[in-house]
Amino acid sequence: MASRLPKLLFFFLLLPVALGLAGWQGWAWWSWATAPIDPVEDTDEASAAATDPVQIQISQGTSGQQIGRDLEAAGLIRSHVAWDMWSRWQDLQQDVTYQAGTYALSPAQSLPEIARQIRSGEVLQTAFTIPEGWTREQMAAAFEERGAFSAQAFLTATQEVPRDRFPWLPQELPHLEGFLYPDTYLLPAEAVTAEGMRDLMLQRFEAIALPVYQQGNSEFSLLEWVTLASIVEREAVIPEERSEIAAVFNRRLAEDMPLGADPTVEYGLGVTQTPEQPLTLAQVNTPSPYNTYINVGLPPTPIANPGLPSLEASLAPPPTEYLYFVARYDGTHVFSRTLAEHEAAQARIRDAIDGINP
Q1: Has residue 250 been placed in a domain?
Q2: Are residues 111 and 242 in the same domain?
Q3: Which H or E run contains 56?
Q4: CATH number of 58's domain
Q5: Same structural domain for residues 65 and 204?
Q6: How many Å is the maximal CA-CA distance in the chain?
Q7: pLDDT tens readout for residues 10-25
Q8: Which among 40, 45, 154, 170 is least surrounded, fewest beta carbons within 10 Å?
């Protein structure tokens, strides 16, 4: 019995040291496994070649364990075992849910940083800008070129008027031209549906444009306001001229004069004039609900999707002494009080163009 005491004493003395050493080794491993991958220190790792972001897609329903294996295989974390341990520890504190999507992750991020990004759903996004004055057709073509969805899908979606979710949309609206707010949108890398994009643009109109109208005490109905703004948008090239162009159109409306706006004729015929191919007299004389040379008043719908500056300029146009304007070759306009002044301005511009292109 006496001979065994030294051995037991030695064991109890050694046990804390062994436990401490094991704990230190465990902590060292954990620190290594959860730390960012250093391309200098970890030259023997395949993932150490770069720390640039890596795109990784997580499908709906993928388990947390599988996500860890995928991250390790992509060289984003050192150990899927550490990932599993981290996930279980997080589960003890809160219900952990990893969000599906495409992520841009880097080996320079720690394991907890990567886990937090996937839990919070910070998916990869791309910026997509819709210029002011684009039509539904132009938007549709751009979305198809971008690979988001087909042009026809967007045209079909915007032919529908989801008044159940957007009750402020005019009752007589046949399609959504004019109410698809032009802006820069951050879109997730996953495929966006045409309906989802449509609703996103209507939400942006509701948040930005609609309050301007509601607070403006305009004499125009919502549809009239957006329609006028769409014509101003297509006519104005110089921002400083928006207000004057809107004022001229407003005065012509008040005096029951045709607006005489080329963009409305183009929209009705589905054509786009260029300096080399301007509208012909036959086209200007072609009957159409959108022909504002023939018809008095506004066309039945907007002809484009105006931005906020054109909407603001058209809300309550100021008084003006002008009744006419004509575009110069540089995009600016000559404003005239009388038809005689207007015709003289047209002649000067034609002569200038003939001088440049004899």
Answers
A1: yes
A2: no
A3: strand 54-58
A4: 3.30.1490.480
A5: no
A6: 128
A7: 445 454 544 454 555 6
A8: 40
Using one digit for the tens of pLDDT, what is the confidence trace for 124-134? Answer: 877 889 999 99
Q: Write the DSSP symbol of residue 46.
A: G
Domain co-membership, 96 together with 64: yes
What is the pLDDT of the chain when averaged over all its residues? Answer: 85
pLDDT at 166 over 90: yes
Dump pLDDT digits (tens) for 254-292: 999 999 999 999 999 999 888 778 889 999 999 999 999
Contact 175, 136 (CB under 8 A): yes
Q: Are residues 89 and 129 in the same domain?
A: no
Cβ–Cβ under 8 Å, residues 292 and 299: yes
Is 247 contained in some domain? Answer: yes
203 domain residue, yes or no: yes
Which structural domain, as residue segments, surrounds residue 60? 48-120
Q: How many residues does the chain have?
A: 358
Residue 47 has pLDDT above 50, yes or no: no
Q: What share of the chain is helix, strand, coil (3-state, %, to 5)?
A: 50, 10, 40
Cβ atoms within 10 Å of 93's Cβ, excluding its own: 7
* Structure token pair of residue 242: 């928006």
**Residue 292: CA atoms inside 13 Å, Cβ hemisphere, count?**
25
Q: Provide the number of structural domains found in the chain.
A: 2
Query: Do 153 and 83 belong together in one domain?
Result: no
pLDDT average, residue stretch 196-207: 95
Q: Tell me: do 100 and 144 sit in the same domain.
A: no
Distance (Å, rounded) from C-alpha 304 to C-alpha 123? 32
Q: What is the pLDDT of residues 79-106, one digit of tens each?
A: 888 888 878 877 665 666 788 888 888 8
Are both 187 and 281 inside the same structural domain? yes
- Shared domain for 110 and 152, answered yes or no, is no
Strands 333-336 and 324-327: antiparallel
Q: Is the pLDDT of residue 7 over 90?
A: no
Confidence of residue 248 (pLDDT cuts 50, 70, 90): very high
- Distance CA(272)–CA(262), nearest Å, equals 10
**Residue 40 domain-assigned (yes or no):** no
